[in-house]
Amino acid sequence: MSVRDDLKAYLDGELAPERAAEVARAIETDPVLREEVEFMRALGFEIRRLAKDPGVEGLEGALSRAGRRRFLPNVPPLARWSFGGVAVILLVAVMFPILAQSKYSARLSGSADLKSLDSGATAAASIPMERESAKADLDLRYQGQAPDQTTFRDGGVEAKALRERVGGRGQAEVPATAAPVPADKESYSNIQGGEVPTLPTMVIRNANLELTVGDARAAMARATSLAQSLGGYVENSSINYLEGNLPVTNVTMRVPEKRFDTAMEQLRALGEVKGESVNGQDVTAQVVDLEARVKALKVEEDQYLTILSKASRIGDILQVKSRLGQVRLEIESLEGQRRYLRNAASMSTIVGTFTQRVQVGKPEAPKNWAEDTWAHAVNGLSAAGRWLGSVGIYVLVFAPIWLPLLVLGVVAMRRANKA
Amino acid sequence: MMESPTGSPHATEEVLDEVRRAKRGQRDALSELVRRYYADVYRFCGRRVPRDLASDVAQETFVTVQQTIKRYDERASFRGWLFGIAHNHCRNAIRKTGREIPVESLWERPGGDAEGAIVNREALRGALLGLTSEHREVVVLHEIEQLTYDEIATMLGVPVGTVKSRLHHAFLNLRKTIVGGEQ
Q1: Which CATH number fits the domain B104-183, given the four candidates 3.30.70.360, 1.10.3810.10, 1.10.10.10, 3.90.1150.10?
Q2: Which residues of A sit within 8 Å Cβ distance of B?
Q3: pLDDT (tens digit, 9 = 90+) per residue, B91-105?
């Protein structure tokens, strides 16, 4: 490269020191080069003088804008619209399940209200008013031959008193073989005086145990034999297969309440415990209540029988028999409930879930795994398409809501950016 | 005539410190950079777009700087990077509005103070208008905007050698036109 080519760069101080020294020496010795350099220097000077100066405006505005945090970064319009679209889709996707859930919950609570109304009505109707008034009617007719009204009412009062006493102590101590409940006021006052016999606590115990085991089927078999060896039985058992053909077995076993802890210990030893829960429901008060009501009804039954033995008119006999039938029906129902609670309390329920640990090559992959996977994938794609379609329809239907908001937002954003 | 307000167009340690602090989101550092370079950027824009647009474009330039300063690579010249942003904003404004400062308006028409002139100003103006747009651009960037070769290269995205060569040939052409005109 000739020295002449570097004259301008030399003048601007843009040459490396060695090259600059070379050019300087050349200029010193060559008057033509010197004249060219001088001309270039003058040219630069004149160009700067000749240039128009537009002045400076707007520094304050720039400082103010530099100190302001922008609402949105300077992203291209397409990206902004895409962002808005995705936000709307996400909003719909989130809101739809929430709305659906709230609708479902409202339906559930409605049915729960109805159920509670039903149960309340059943409880209240345990001694129907109709029967009470009919009994009073018969009592009046056979006055002097049958127990008085007070004795009849005592059955109800007695049951209530027992319930309150049991409830007040939190735990029932009325014996299962309770002595015949006296039907008169005096006997009732004896009970109130603190001579309430004790009943062993009855608790319905339920447990869930989740275990990881080496072989889920073998664990199910061992749990079954365990239940039998403890004097219990298997109520229900099932086997399911997870993805990867891993078996999961479920065993619902009933074991005597006294052997509950032993059963739990032996079940835990079958594998690695992944989850465990035990809950108990004290049903002593319910049982005591049921027994008291049964006794009161039996007293009532005896009284009807007395009336029946003394009735002479066909119409009266039929009426008493009808009432007697109702009382016996109710006694049967209450005794059924009592038996159920006693049984549930005497046999605890344990639900064991055994998940097989993953092992190499065991269990073997199912034969049609590729076809199954293909079918799953295709079905999944189809479901995703349907879901996207549903979202699209929602977005379209909800457009009158979000579209004006979006337009307003974009306009506001543009104005803010301009400002 | 057009001196940089900082006295030196080069990115000093002080400038680099401000840039680093601005990268960390410190507003005062960005304000310092605005104060330091706003006049240069405004003049740069004012020579490309009409005056009523110039301050908007200059301000937009600094807004872009605020948003993208984290992407600035410190190995490159900061001024070159900054003027590159300003250059893009000017081009966008010209494309949107269709308004541009004509080349003839870049230089004053020679007036009565031409006695002390070393070269014939009218001839110089004609010679500048006669340059190709590429040559004129580097002349304006170097002689008027006071950008170094390195900064011009960063701004235009060309090698430094290209800038040097364009400037050399631009001055050769100017000399040829002026001296030839005088002869």
Answers
A1: 1.10.10.10
A2: 5-9, 12, 14, 36, 39-40, 42-59, 61-63, 65-67, 70, 73-74
A3: 999 999 988 888 878
